[in-house]
Write a structure and sequence with these properties.
mainly alpha
Length: 77
């Protein structure tokens, strides 16, 4: 799932999967999804002792360039 979301990443730090939706809105949805998936990974590791998964070391570690994404959202306000 994270790989699929990563496929929508754009070089400006946004996520875009649709021609009609706002890139800012889609970026927010992507960040929500990444955060949710990272939480699920941690829960699976902890509660079910699944050792095949790598633990998440920091929040949003699966965002390709978190600085660009941060600036995109901050500048939109």
């Amino acid at each position: 799932m994270i790989g699929m979301i990563d496929g929508y990443y754009q070089n400006d730090g946004s996520y875009k999967s649709s021609l009609t939706s706002s890139p800012l809105d889609e970026t927010r949805y992507a960040l929500f999804s990444i955060n949710l998936l990272e939480d699920l990974i941690q829960d699976i590791i902890y509660y079910y002792s699944i050792t095949e998964l790598e633990p998440v070391k920091k929040i949003y570690e699966n965002v390709r360039d978190v600085e660009k994404t941060y600036r995109l959202i901050k500048e939109a306000k």
